[in-house]
């Protein structure tokens, strides 16, 4: 059962999102031409007002030309400046009332500026991709851009027929007309705006492994020249899926896709039901396998169980980092304790000025947050012992499936599985900057099992 958090403006990005209402469904219809990098779109948002009447609200949308805006079919007053589309309906929306918003927009999409460079829509040499974390979604569609405002999506993308469109969710239809093809995807699960992923390119599609009865469909979309390397690098992803379902509970979405672009990416990017990798993450030697595990784990931690605001990003990255260690431990590599010791040595030589529970915008993607987040999860495991820890972990992913959470919610949840108070542990690891001592396990490693064998990726 999803547990939603009621929050105000995000303290790290106060210009993004609007807590006066929430969206429960987006229907997007977009026409994109890669040559001129031209996009034209229509969005229909089904929304619900909050506890007070709404005389004005905002959507986030980058510098596009606005062709039409309607609220419940009527023309509102609106302004569009600085990435904010401010809308004043003809009459205020009653508290708790449902309403619809329709927006038509067009222009040349480009990344939005951020402290980490351009985010969102990125034009490639031959195609495009969307990598929006944390505030890049308005680079291509109008949205209530806050991670706690989760909605279902239907996305229709029309492109020249030479290109394939991959989006998170289930492909409903693919319709060719003359020189263009329209791809329609449905993501029924609640989705944060930054997790709406998209890739447009020329790919070969492969099936990853032999699907188990009732298993999760997994596909890869890669440039044909990288197929051989991909088939080795991602061969063990089905085994990762099997392990994570065992440890975290059922995969929270209907399907999972990975895309490899022809171009290099600094880091892979997770989206809901979809992960994007660069050509540099494919080497034929499983050199980026930990990242394959990391991005898959985000489907539980970050995507299904989302954060209420960006102060809590360690709940995404710490759990995904620890999932890398769990995969290593189960697949015959170094144990989580060995990897924790290596991370602890690394962090002990770096500045001690990061507060994990609220790192600040400047440090929210600092490498130390990932490592210390993984260490914090390991510290909880050491304190609880394996039996209670893995029951706690599965319960966390199950109770909050489809919802948005905070650090306080996690510490309360973990405390219910402990024999004694965990206040000191959480104070040291989450709220103080000094690095605590390396945690030592009270239980053992994961139950001993044979390492997962390599499997083959076959053509779909």
Question: Sheet bearing the most strands, described?
Answer: 7 strands, mixed
Number of helices: 9
- The termini sit apart by 35 Å
Assembly state: single chain
Describe the overall structure:
This protein starts with 20 loop residues before the first strand and ends with a strand. The protein is 23% helix and 29% strand. The protein is globular, with a radius of gyration of 22 Å. The chain has 9 helices and 22 strands. The protein folds into 2 domains: 202 residues, Immunoglobulin-like (Sandwich); 126 residues, Neutral Protease Domain 2 (Neutral Protease, domain 2). α2 runs parallel beside α3, α5 packs across α6 and α6 crosses α7. The N terminus and C terminus are likely disordered. With 460 residues, the protein is α+β, with helices and mostly antiparallel strands.
What's the layout of helices and strands?
Layout: E1 21-33, E2 38-49, E3 57-60, E4 65-71, E5 77-81, E6 84-88, E7 98-107, E8 120-124, E9 127-131, E10 151-160, E11 164-167, E12 170-177, E13 180-191, E14 198-201, E15 204-208, E16 218-222, H1 227-233, H2 237-248, E17 256-260, E18 269-271, E19 274-277, H3 289-297, E20 306-307, H4 314-330, H5 336-348, H6 367-384, H7 386-399, E21 404-405, H8 407-415, H9 423-431, E22 457-459
Parallel strand pairs: 1-10, 16-17, 17-19, 20-21
Antiparallel strand pairs: 1-2, 2-7, 3-6, 4-7, 5-6, 8-9, 9-14, 10-13, 11-14, 12-13, 15-16, 15-22, 18-19
Helix pairs in contact: 2-3, 3-4, 4-6, 5-6, 6-7, 6-9
